[in-house]
Design a protein that fits this description.
The chain is 42% helix and 24% strand. It has 277 residues and is of the alpha+beta class. 13% of the residues are buried.
């Protein structure tokens, strides 16, 4: 029995509980040894049975006291605030509270989660309504700007006949540019005629107002005299009016006719005569 020598340190109640209540969890030698120790201490079977009843009552009273204590136990304020703010972390956890008798904690948890869901819903609704209101305000601003732009656009009119004559020094062959612009329903349409030794090239263009300038784009694909191709996405050139004088800002098309004059640098911006405006 040397391996059960520590049983000598057990109190009378502990030995009684071991022998008469908890004997299934102990080896038979240990139970017999504990029974011998009770006999040595003068504890009879009758007293042991009486004491067992008292121990059961004490255990029941302790359990009831613990359950009552659990029933009244509550979360502190910090825990409740944290639980309300981060309710999604607790919604699938802590379901053991009701099972283990923490009735008050269970109610507080449900209330905190419910309050968190309610506050989150209010916040989402507020953000959604605010977003819709901002979107409406933004849309109104866009509509107002569009209306203002249309009014301003209606005042801009580049209609007229424009003639440009290439006057490159040392060049005998001249390419005549004739541009007729019409404004129809707030849109500018233009026809560019290139005349070269009695050969004519007619290019239909769309005129777009941009800032203080006026840009020209072909409405389709055209082949120029020099073999170069222009298409609808090519900006041909732009007009800029400075002090009532129209200047040309060249894009895909250039005023030079012969390639040997392309790098002469004589013309960067060429003045254009507005014959009919």
């Amino acid at each position: 029995m040397e391996k059960y020598i520590r049983l000598k340190e057990y109190s009378d109640d502990e030995l009684i509980f071991l022998v008469y209540e908890d004997n299934q969890n102990w080896q038979k030698e240990a139970v017999d040894y504990a029974q011998d120790l009770l006999f040595e201490r003068g504890i009879t079977v009758e007293f042991a049975q009486f004491r067992i009843k008292q121990i059961r009552k004490e255990i029941k009273l302790l359990e009831e006291s613990e359950l009552e204590q659990r029933n009244q136990e509550s979360f502190d304020v910090i825990d409740l605030i944290f639980m309300t703010l981060f309710w999604y972390r607790y919604i699938f956890d802590d379901w053991y509270l009701n099972r283990d008798g923490y009735a008050k904690k269970r109610k507080q948890r449900l209330f905190a989660i419910g309050a968190g869901i309610f506050l989150t819903s209010i916040l989402i609704l507020y953000v959604d309504l605010t977003h819709d209101k901002k979107e409406q305000q933004k849309m109104q601003e866009i509509i107002q700007k569009d209306r203002t732009d249309r009014i301003e656009m209606s005042k801009i009119d580049w209609s007229g006949l424009y003639i440009f004559l290439d006057t490159t020094i040392g060049q005998t062959d001249k390419l005549i540019w004739e541009l007729e612009v019409k404004k129809i329903n707030m849109e500018h349409l233009a026809v560019l005629k290139l005349i070269d030794n009695k050969q004519n090239l007619r290019i239909n263009c769309v005129g777009l107002v941009k800032n203080d300038g006026f840009e020209f784009f072909p409405d389709s694909t055209y082949l120029l005299f020099n073999g170069e191709t222009i298409s609808y996405y090519d900006r041909l050139f732009s007009f800029v009016r400075i002090d009532n004088v129209i200047y040309t800002d060249w894009g895909k098309m250039r005023p030079f006719y012969h390639l040997k004059f392309n790098d002469s640098g004589l013309f960067k911006k060429v003045s254009v005569s507005n014959l009919h405006n």
